[in-house]
Design a protein that fits this description.
189 residues, alpha+beta, coiled coil, transmembrane, membrane, transmembrane helix
Length: 189
């Protein structure tokens, strides 16, 4: 089943898809090469050999994407279900985020966006929390100036922060919120 960016299960889906597409490009390249040899009486010097070699380009694209996603995994389903139950229809819950910046590839398990607030939790241990916090804060403010961004180090911290947010009154979504959502989605690989 196809998964879209920000949907639960996206990282695992994307890793499988990129690996299969890499394998498919290799098989197509090999098939083209041997077809060319068969049609040209065993000679390798033909246009089919060139076409087979060119299959490396899309294969490399898929393989690089696989390498980017390889260290990360989809968070636990129980955590996702718990967050959905806690949040209900309030705000937007994103899952399985792999975000790129010029310097780093970052992973967030969950990101919740509501009026004036973006809350996230690190996906993989060992990431620089301060860098991710600063990068997202700076760039989200370019799109939605009133948005507060807070990235947390653990799932338990996220639950605590979300529980506090749920106590506050619900506000109507504005244009800034839509822009913040669009920007976050544009960052995701």
């Amino acid at each position: 089943m196809k998964r879209e960016k920000t949907e639960y299960g996206y990282i695992d889906y994307r890793k499988k898809r990129q690996f299969l597409m890499t394998f498919l490009m290799v098989l197509i390249g090999i098939a083209i090469y041997f077809l060319g040899r068969a049609l040209n009486k065993g000679e390798s010097s033909n246009v089919f050999t060139v076409a087979a070699i060119l299959m490396v380009l899309p294969g490399a694209k898929y393989f690089v994407n696989f390498i980017v996603f390889f260290p990360y995994s989809t968070p636990q389903r129980a955590q996702h279900e718990e967050l959905k139950a806690l949040l209900g229809n309030r705000g937007s819950l994103y899952s399985d985020l792999v975000i790129t910046s010029p310097e780093k590839v970052m992973n967030l398990d969950f990101l919740w966006i509501e009026e004036g607030c973006v809350l996230g939790v690190l996906g993989k241990d060992g990431q620089e929390l301060a860098y991710i916090q600063q990068y997202l804060s700076q760039n989200v403010r370019n799109w939605a100036s009133d948005c507060r961004v807070k990235i947390l180090g653990s799932y338990q911290e996220l639950l605590k922060e979300l529980t506090e947010q749920m106590k506050r009154s619900e506000k109507e979504k504005t244009e800034d919120l839509k822009k913040a959502k669009e920007y976050i989605r544009s960052l995701i690989v």
